[in-house]
Amino acid sequence: MLFRENIIFELKEKIKQNPLDIDGHKNLANYYIGSGDLNNAMICYKNILQIAPDDYQSLINLGSIYFYKKLYLEAIQCYNKASLKEPDNYASYYNLGNIYAEIENFELALVNYEKAVKISPERAEIYNALGYLYQDLDNLDEARKFYLKAIELDSVNYEYYINIANMEQLLGNNVDALMYYEKALNLNPTDEKVVLCLANTYSSLKNFDVARKYYDKALDINPAYYSAWVCKAIAYCDNNCSQEAVVFLKQAIETNPEKPNAYILLANILVDEKRFEEALLLYKTVAKILTKDPKISAFIANTYIMLDDYEQAVRYYKKAMKQAPKDNEIKLIYIEMANSYINQKMKGKK
Predict the structure, then answer these.
(1) What is the pLDDT at residue 71?
(2) Which has the closest alpha carbon to 215: 175, 268, 170, 241?
(3) Which of 57, 108, 228, 266 could form a disulfide with 249 if both were Cys (CB 3.0 to 4.6 A apart)?
(4) Rounded CA separation 77/283 (Å)
(5) Are 272 and 348 in the same domain?
(6) What does the pLDDT look like over 262-318, one tens digit per residue?
């Protein structure tokens, strides 16, 4: 910490000696970015732009910080200004395309990506971004074409193989997905996400033995990999190994107690095993995390029905309907359950 403060002090002292020295401000901004201090980096770039309003790279960098902070309007303004200063530089259009894709203005995203391609047709990252865009538009033939073009231009970028593999898996083309995931893994053997993708794909192909080895490998790389614990549990459940799945889900919860999926899956297993009280505790824990999710309220209500506690079931179904007033399925279940409850009460009176 003291070393960092000393460097910052020295950089600031140089700026004090020459406040108009743009390089001094850039050096300080670069140091802040390197240490993850985006707020101070943003201040530095604003200071640079007060001295040199047309500094292209500072406009791009400031826009990127705004983008990261989800301040999209400010980011767009920076990139637009940059494009006016250097209309033949692809970076401003590429970044504008990324923002418009993020806010789902696909038409403007496509316009800007196409401008970037026209200026720099050798840039693989633009074609990769176009692949993402067309995938979001459900034009998967075009998406595949652009992903493959990105790979053609940069065959050692493992992320491009992951992107096309993810798309192929969504299409159910698991064999093709495996091929691309394996290429990605060859390029980066320690990437836990690629290993997990391979595990899930083998699981989809019902090759449980190979899937299990990849789940184990992902967790060897990162024992605190929450998604790997959850996916491994699902694979074991699918292969009728629910007791092992319970152990993995408990490990997932221990790894990250703030995420809801492991609680829900574990509670579902306990319901199947008629361990309703334990399941209720888990569902209620999730309800504290997902405070406005009607499905969790419905899960709790269903579990109370299993316990023949209709009053609590009614309470939670009402809560679910408040959370999702247009969900007709919840309404129908509630009406059916309420009628059953009334009939039970009437029988009791007789």
Answers:
(1) 96
(2) 241
(3) 266
(4) 45
(5) yes
(6) 999 999 999 999 999 999 999 999 999 999 999 999 999 999 988 989 889 888 988
Are the C-beta atoms of residues 132 and 144 closer than 8 Å to each other?
no
3-state helix, strand, coil in the chain (%, to 5): 80, 0, 20
Domain count, the chain: 2
The tokens for 112 are 């800007």
203 closest CA partner among 168, 178, 176: 178
Half-sphere exposure of 207 (CA within 13 A, CB side): 13
Residue 339 falls inside a structural domain: yes
Q: CATH number for the domain including 342?
A: 1.25.40.10
Query: Which residues touch 130 (CB under 8 Å, ≥6 apart)?
Result: 110, 113, 117, 142, 146
> Domain span at residue 235?
190-243
Task: Please indicate, yes or no, if residue 282 is contained in any of the structural domains.
Answer: yes
* Residues 208 and 268 grouped into a single domain: no
Same domain? For 227 and 289 the reply is: no
Chain length of the chain: 350
Amino acid at 223: P
236 and 264 in a single domain? The answer is: no
Q: Which residues contact 216 (CB under 8 A, 6 or more apart)?
A: none
Three-state DSSP class for 165?
helix
Count of Cβ atoms closer than 10 Å to residue 140 Cβ: 16
pTM, to two decimals: 0.80
